[in-house]
Structure formats: structure tokens, C-alpha cells
Amino acid sequence: MQIVGFVYMLRCADGSYYIGSRRGRDPERRVWGHNHGMDKHAYTFTRRPVELFWSEWHSRYDEMVARERQIKGWSRAKKEALIRSDGGALVDLSKRGVKPYLVAHPSRRGQEAAPQDEEIALGQGAAPQDEGIPCHQTETPHPEERALRVRLEGWAARTEGEA
Length: 163
Hints:
By secondary structure, the chain is α+β, with helices and mostly antiparallel strands. It has helices at residues 27-35, 61-72, 76-83, 87-94, 115-121, 135-138, 143-162, and strands at 5-11, 17-23, 51-58.
């Protein structure tokens, strides 16, 4: 089999994943290029250093590009299952409507579900700590609302100090 190129997955310094493909046989050389910031407009430029987490060889260019596009469309959970070579989780995560947090990590397979997983699976979600407080009062305000509140409180504190 003649190798045309490879598809690769990098983990960036911010924890995100970058998927790419390249003609040739040397993934480490490609990682070097990402880490040395050859293109200041590249996704990885501001997320360095990057580390090679996974690669796959291909003998046909069209298959390589198709595989790259396929993986780019996957959820984070599915990408992590690919990195672990966890075929069972890949199959489970490929099913329509499956929530990634309901697919058991290999370390938990064969064990009973954790209580929080059972609640989520039953559609109950997390309950507020104090049953007497309505849910809408326990929500965190929108960031813009918090910023406005801080500005108003700061303005009120300055006017009180001047009086």
C-alpha cells in the first residue's frame, strides 16, 4: 500500500481539538509547523502549544479528505472515543439521539450508572439545593445583566461617598 497522506488530531493548549490532513508521511513535521506558528491566521496560532493525539494513514487522497471532514463533524465525546480507540463508544455515539454524557466511559462500563446519570436519563435533571426556592430565582443572570448591575452599584457607591 502506498501512503498518500494522513489525517491527524491535535489537542491545543486551550483543550480544544484541531483536525487536519496532510500529504506525506511525517505527522511530527506537521505538528512542528503548527507549534512554530507558520500562519498567524491559523486556528492553532493562538492556541499553542499543540500536541499530536491521533493520526491515521490513507492511500487515497479523496478518502483522506472525506475522513477529515467526517471527524470534524463529530462531537467532542466521539473524538475522544476515537483517541482512546474505543469502538464501543463510537458505535453508541453514532446512534441518532444518543446524548454523549449518557455513554459510559470505559472505566465505568459494566458498573451501575451513577445517581446523576440515572436522574438525567429519567429527564429529572439537577434539582435546586433548597426546595423552597423557585428555579427561576436560582439561575445565574446573563453576563450583560451582571455588568450593568456592577456599574450601577459602583455608581451608587460613588454618589453615597460624595454625599
